[in-house]
Amino acid sequence: MPVATSPRPNSDSVPAESAAHVPGRFVRLAADALRHYYDSAYLAAHPVLVQLSETLGTDRTIAVQRLRRMLLDAVEGLRPEHGTPPASPAWRPYRVLHGRYILAKGLDELEAELGLSRRQIQREQRSAFAAVAMALWAKRLATTPDQGPPGRQDAMSQEISRVATEEQVCDAARELEAALQVVRALAEDKRVELVPRFSSTTAQVVANPDLLRQLLVSVLSLVIRVACTDEYAVRVETFPACISCVLYPQGASRSREMPHHIPLPDPVLALAQANGAMITQENADGIWRLLIELRPAPESHTVVIVEDNKDLVRLYSRYLAGCGYRLIEISDSATAVQRIAEIMPDAVVLDLMMSRVDGWQILQSLRSNPSLRSIPVAVCSVLNEPELARSLGADAYLRKPVRPPELLECLTGLLEPRRTVGSTPPQATR
Fold it and tell me: Which domains does the chain have, with CATH numbers?
């Protein structure tokens, strides 16, 4: 894993006065942590861990897991009371934060989905950030740590840390098939019918395959135990970036009322958190559904990095692999322009100080070539020449040493207009 340094919180304004007694700096830290909800390396070095150390503990891996859970709980705390009309403005703070940072939706999609302008979304976001900060600050002021003394929760976190490897793009349907093989004997013992339905579309997600399989086994085991008490059948379906477990009555039990909410055990919550997954439940039209929403694999982008430092290239390759980027290294600056023309990448990361042909010459050649001038270029150098780089046509400038999160943020900014948002799962049917 890349070594993280202290992150620099986003400077977007958050109204400290709306957070009452919560210090303005803490509001900004909480907002920044939520913005980087899925960036473990960034969160591991985040100043908010120090602010919440009494609650989160000193083990950084465990602290990041606990922080994510606290942030998710705080966002869920914005959900309006049951019975609030779906069109009520009371839903806006929750839908903005949950959609933007938990479901990782783009601003364009949120605008269309919520029927709000970007300015309205930003206004709702600022007030919601303050509410999240208040929830975290209340935890900080608590006299006892949120997780209590070392016990089962710590043991679970330690086990997850021990098993977890780097996240990668994986096939959720394949992991689900493996999990179904594990729980099939339990279903037979409980006389519960398991009905798997696999979508013809791919279910590529970003997760830790081992932990994802354990999450699916734990959820299926829980659903089977619930189903056997009232003679329900279980249908398991895959959709792009999510898995649905549908519980429906069969035989004489059809008149029985379906469960509204099943408490999720701590291990299930911890495994969901470790995979960046969101678990929701709903009861509608005579069925009960548990939905596991996973992070969709980002659209694949090809990025050329013109760099003669192979260690740096390997570091970037490892970090960006699970984020939807295919990195192609060009170490020979003399052939860089020719190779870029052959590859036609989505973006170029260009070092300046190289032998034979330097980055300035390469940048000028790219911008003078009609077929290459539209390719976004991020200059990355120890030199402090951002104005010169932009005057020559660079789209972004990164000062070495560059942390992987900074490179990821830069590429996201360069390629954001080209990205597409994954589709949402259809409603479950009987």
Answer: 16-149 (no CATH), 168-296 (3.30.565.10), 301-418 (3.40.50.2300)
